[in-house]
Amino acid sequence: MIIVTRKGVTAEELDHIRERVESYGLRTHVSRGEERTIIGCVGDEEALRHVPLLSIPGVEAVHEVLKPYKLASREFAAEPTRVPLRDAELGGRALVVIAGPCSVEGREMLEATAHRVQAAGARALRGGAFKPRTSPYSFRGLGEEGLRILADVRAETGLPVVTEVMDTRQVELVASYADVLQIGARNMQNFNLLTEVGRLQRPVLLKRGMAATIKDLLLAAEYVMSQGNPHVILCERGIRTFGTETRNTFDLAAIPVLKRETHLPVIADPSHAGGRRHLVAPLSYAAVAAGADGLMVEVHPDPATATSDGDQSLDFDEFDAMMSGLAAFAEAAGRTLPRAAMIAG
Amino acid sequence: MIIVTRKGVTAEELDHIRERVESYGLRTHVSRGEERTIIGCVGDEEALRHVPLLSIPGVEAVHEVLKPYKLASREFAAEPTRVPLRDAELGGRALVVIAGPCSVEGREMLEATAHRVQAAGARALRGGAFKPRTSPYSFRGLGEEGLRILADVRAETGLPVVTEVMDTRQVELVASYADVLQIGARNMQNFNLLTEVGRLQRPVLLKRGMAATIKDLLLAAEYVMSQGNPHVILCERGIRTFGTETRNTFDLAAIPVLKRETHLPVIADPSHAGGRRHLVAPLSYAAVAAGADGLMVEVHPDPATATSDGDQSLDFDEFDAMMSGLAAFAEAAGRTLPRAAMIAG
Amino acid sequence: MIIVTRKGVTAEELDHIRERVESYGLRTHVSRGEERTIIGCVGDEEALRHVPLLSIPGVEAVHEVLKPYKLASREFAAEPTRVPLRDAELGGRALVVIAGPCSVEGREMLEATAHRVQAAGARALRGGAFKPRTSPYSFRGLGEEGLRILADVRAETGLPVVTEVMDTRQVELVASYADVLQIGARNMQNFNLLTEVGRLQRPVLLKRGMAATIKDLLLAAEYVMSQGNPHVILCERGIRTFGTETRNTFDLAAIPVLKRETHLPVIADPSHAGGRRHLVAPLSYAAVAAGADGLMVEVHPDPATATSDGDQSLDFDEFDAMMSGLAAFAEAAGRTLPRAAMIAG
Amino acid sequence: MIIVTRKGVTAEELDHIRERVESYGLRTHVSRGEERTIIGCVGDEEALRHVPLLSIPGVEAVHEVLKPYKLASREFAAEPTRVPLRDAELGGRALVVIAGPCSVEGREMLEATAHRVQAAGARALRGGAFKPRTSPYSFRGLGEEGLRILADVRAETGLPVVTEVMDTRQVELVASYADVLQIGARNMQNFNLLTEVGRLQRPVLLKRGMAATIKDLLLAAEYVMSQGNPHVILCERGIRTFGTETRNTFDLAAIPVLKRETHLPVIADPSHAGGRRHLVAPLSYAAVAAGADGLMVEVHPDPATATSDGDQSLDFDEFDAMMSGLAAFAEAAGRTLPRAAMIAG
């Protein structure tokens, strides 16, 4: 922590600031400038994090020196983290595409989708059983019935299942079916939920909140990791800005920034970021070009009849086309992308 | 719902759009312009809300006609809602100031604070027992011990208690102590939590999320109300924008906009909005001038030693001064503000 | 300037960083922490402002210590600046309301407006002759004819005239008619225009840009002041955020923040901030409650026929009502507000 | 234009609304719903654009049906516009990379840069002679001397020159040297400047403003085009959001949205968008993957000594590496990228 004092700070004020800092076990180091005096605080910065330093007379500004996350930081791990997903893993050289409907609407539609996306190269199946909806009058998912369908389709296809958990009371239930527990954007700072999923050893897919900074996202990951669960996948899915032409503003640069800041794998959700079908392919290609380890894409047998997110869901042919186009970008990015043939073979 | 079609839409496309809309039980009404044809959809708009109309060939844009919330809308209630708070009520002519520490740190500090803020005119006591914290390494509150202290101090002073509930599993526990259940900004779209507090008859203080629009906030209130709980207090506490000079950006205009859109009472939280002590008074005065029904203000016996939010907490003298200044603004706004003498008397 | 080095920075890197800083004439002061080493740079920070310090190997972060503006900063002036406006002044105890139409549409409408707003207590007349319009197909003002009308109405009423200048080529012309040169939000960083108006001794009303931070606004003022013109009035008129319920997001807290950061007077423009007539009064009252030195309000004889901004313009009766309501808030804020009678008398 | 009326609108109000609309030469078309009545306005929507419809009693909301820009819209042109740049053109299959220093600092550095970027495949040279700077105390460019150097280096290399014009008074001067006139982000809504560059036949590179929507950007292009200049290049360079980890937030999705909305070519500026050297390559690759027609990249012989933007400028080797990496992405996107050999040959 670095403390910048006000112009004309008095000797008494300086002494008082130093005493306060030192009372938390840190040492202070004073550097007198021509207009401002600066106090460097040496020691365990964590101890100072919540001290209201700005309230001490004579203090003008405070700058953090250390990042508030530890386990999620790049420095903490020698190698990028690879999250196991049954036969696959996320965070290695192979690009992982997770695909499936927004909501599990029934067995048949999920089976059909799973087979088609698998044939096109997807390595995991997404599908919501518990759905967070902005309006209380919207469809909120099939609940446990949806989870059972997901598990059955996994049994058929071998595709690991990614599904959302919204409530601390559902963690155990969802974990009994899912391979990856998804935390939605609106729950990114539901700290009790983060704590609960951190207590399991099941991978967590953590979506960035609409108003979350990179630091907020990494602190949310830290919540999970600090409970003992090292398998967190970060997902950029767009932030809220003044823009209205897209559902959210896809913060593409977050991908390379995160790849530099953390050892955790980073994926993108082009469906929610853009909110329109025609944007899914260009955003997917861009995400991979920028270094993403994977994608999560909404696919539906008939988007026009989807119970949710139909405007941003690809139909099967569109998904096939997107995956075909993706291959060259994956290669340009030094990634491998498993093909239908390889999997079917 | 109004559907705007693309330039050059074909007759087949128009027919298909109409059929889709009519299949949901609405009637359509076509208006041909020189460049665009418009389809008005007459009937239960709710049925169309989640139909992916933009995905139907020929559709260019879709405009909602009705507000997606009902119970929270101005039209639903003849009179402004008044939320009972023991002897007081929020939403009437009397301005209600809720004051107290960010976190309950102990019995003595809470007692001292309660007595002082009551003497200065506060009508309710705030204090966190369960604290949402951005970092997993921060103090997260005293938990049930904090609730017990709040209840004890209420017994002493008669001040109703406002405290946060963060987890569906804690709703019953918190409700057994609190007069008002606070839903924090980060949980504004924790829909399961909203549903749970909606099942009680305890008033809910709902803080606006950092990226929440007015519509999002009212839909969150609708979640609570649709479960049967009519007593929701809305709280503007600042949104996240590009600004860095304040902790959040206080969206003052949200107050008169909400007063026009809904019958629910609206308060402001100047402490979180500004994030600095010197901003609490001007933001409070402005909120009242703009029509707020109340304020929620952080007060601490010694802000410099507070475990959380010390930089934005007033000390006792500052709170007294703020309340003294507030009286004239309350009067200018046609509000009454109970004084120390009146209460003490 | 404070330089934070990367974890594991080498001695060579440290030496190189210090050499670079010292080559600009500053001294360096090294403070070794447990995880990070910090280099304080003592001397003329301005010399370092544009050195790409982040590009030097071993540097992780750079924090500014001094504000980049000087003349506009609080520290530069012992007293708040008072800007003369003919008989009145802006920045003293008397609240100054500037009122008038968005655009000067003709002589009669301006005369009528000027007389009515003056009777209600306005101390200056606004009206656009050169209008910045988002679309090239919109009405762009009467040009010099509009300026002539403004000057004539000033001759009749004695009200000083505030009008916008958009182009360096027009500065001389506009200054030959106007008492105050307004720089619009879209031109807040038109640095050549700021420089030109800085060369005159005419007061400048500088509106905050839609994406401008407080620092950006003060640097724009610094442009004007650094040319020798000390009379800059700052105007908060809303910023652009994700909000859509109001035209802009009124950043009310900018008012007390600016009053603390600078000696320049600060006014608010509730018409542009809210964009709707019913918001003008509550936003005006709030601005005054938060410490604004004045207001700029759009008033039109018949808003429904206005060529621009009709949706946010008050009619005469609405303006009268707003001014009546304002009196009590002005008094609560320790301000005086001249009344019709006083002026008429 | 579609007008939605308030619930309970009276017959008189309806009549009055229709009369107002019809007085502008449009026809009205009323559609009565169960809760709301809608009035479709058929005819020249432009005539209604600035009528304050929201101020008419009974009106609740107004929706535009037509885009406010014409010449810039996709529908206006059968084919994508190709902007000639000497031997090259922007907007065709060949990707165009514009590279060079932020500011022209001298002849030697510009020559060296031009030769290196040309060898690596750049097809145009950028360099600022007039620099917009946030602070009045920063270096503002060499002025006409800078323009002369640019022209000399063009004579040597054949590279067309892109340089900024900031002031209506400089348009003629800058145009006498430059091949492309750049309008900076801060001047995107300097409407007089847009008008002036629209009067020439010189291509204009229009950078998106920090708070500009897609619609605002296209209306700014419309200003230029409505004066007779069809050669506008749009440039996404990041918008201002709550994010602080990058200089701006790169709105990647704007690229495919613009490619759909307009026939004008679209490029990206990864240097300003990210603000850090290590982000230039990933953002460039992503922009091309998303459909950009070109890139504008800052390159400097020694970024650590640059007078401006050093932290985001690539050195020669970094630029070479970026261009090498770009080839595969260009190919994946169906684009050609001229190589050093081809040009040198």
Keywords:
homotetramer, 345 residues, alpha/beta, 2 domains, eight-stranded parallel barrel, 14 strands
Q: Mind explaining what this structure looks like?
A:
Four copies of one chain form a homotetramer. By secondary structure, the first copy, chain A, is an alpha/beta fold. Helix content of chain A is 33%, strand content 17%. Chain A has eleven helices and 14 strands. The first copy, chain A, has helices at residues 11-22, 107-119, 144-157, 171-175, 191-198, 214-226, 254-261, 270-274, 277-289, 316-332, 340-344; strands at 2-5, 27-32, 37-42, 59-63, 83-85, 88-90, 96-100, 124-126, 161-164, 180-183, 204-207, 232-236, 266-268, 294-298. In chain A, helix 2 packs parallel to helix 3 (144-157), helix 5 packs across helix 6 and helix 9 runs parallel beside helix 10. The first copy, chain A, is elongated, with a radius of gyration of 23 Å. At the C-D interface, helix 5 and helix 6 of C face helix 5 and helix 6 of D.
Count of runs of 4 or more consecutive helical residues of chain A: 11
Unreliable stretches covering 5 or more consecutive residues of chain A: 341-345
Oligomer: homotetramer
Greatest contact between two chains: C-D, 54 and 54 residues
Strand content of chain A: 15-25%
**N-to-C order of helices and strands of chain A:** EHEEEEEEHEHEHEHEHEHEHHEHH
Query: How many separate domains of chain A?
Result: 2
Brief sketch in words of this structure:
Chain A is 33% helix and 17% strand.
